[in-house]
Amino acid sequence: MATANVAPLPGREPELRGQTVVVIGGSAGIGFEVARRARAEGAELIVAARDTVRLRHAAAELGAQTAASFDATDPAALERFFRELPGPVDHVMVTAGRPRYGRLADMDYAEMREAIDEHLMQTLEVARNAPGRVRPGGSLVFMGGTGGRRPGPGRAIVSAVTAAMPALVAGLALELAPIRVNLIAPGFVDTPLSATLLGDELDSRRRQLRDTLPIGRVVGPADVAALAVHVMTNTALTGATYDIDGGQQLVAA
Predict the structure, then answer these.
(1) Using 50, 70 and 90 to split pLDDT, how confident is the model at 111?
(2) Does domain 20-241 have CATH number 3.40.50.720?
(3) Strand order, beta sheet including 44-49
């Protein structure tokens, strides 16, 4: 791969030097920023994503050691990815998947199953494959969310997944110890995925958040990436859920 266009952070020793970080969903958005931040902290990178072309460009920009294109909701592909890792890794970050909004009456069984598989089943499969590939004391970091904590029409599946993920991660932290397992739960994050989901409503949503959030700005992928790297490097953290929404839960929706 090409040399990474990622500058080291000044003034201190990189926190991930000598460690290997895997980012599943690392070709865009939050996953790409986590990979960029980990690289700036000295990590060797292995990035994976479904879109081969986008992954190739991301891996070249990041200077990734390895890039693997596969569907992370496919158990066989995920097992093969872990089996073929070039060696033990220190951290696995999973950002693949997207929230699924919509009324159940408008979804068929396959769509509902996919919405569950992209989060709960994918988490279980990553956890099942981690022992023996992730070093003791290393970590698995998964992505949840906060928006589903407010139930409403079209949010049934999102709310169910939002509620289930913290309990699942807490259980996995005990089952996989000494591998650490944690969950990051963002609110709205200004990413290409958010732009796709909101379409023409994106700018008005940004303005609303800037006007109402206690932090006075919109949360970006770099904010989540900074938290993800902290969760990886702080070896006292396991079994917990870390909200990062700029105070979105504290104000009106």
Answers:
(1) confident
(2) yes
(3) 66-69, 44-49, 20-24, 89-94, 134-143, 180-186, 241-244
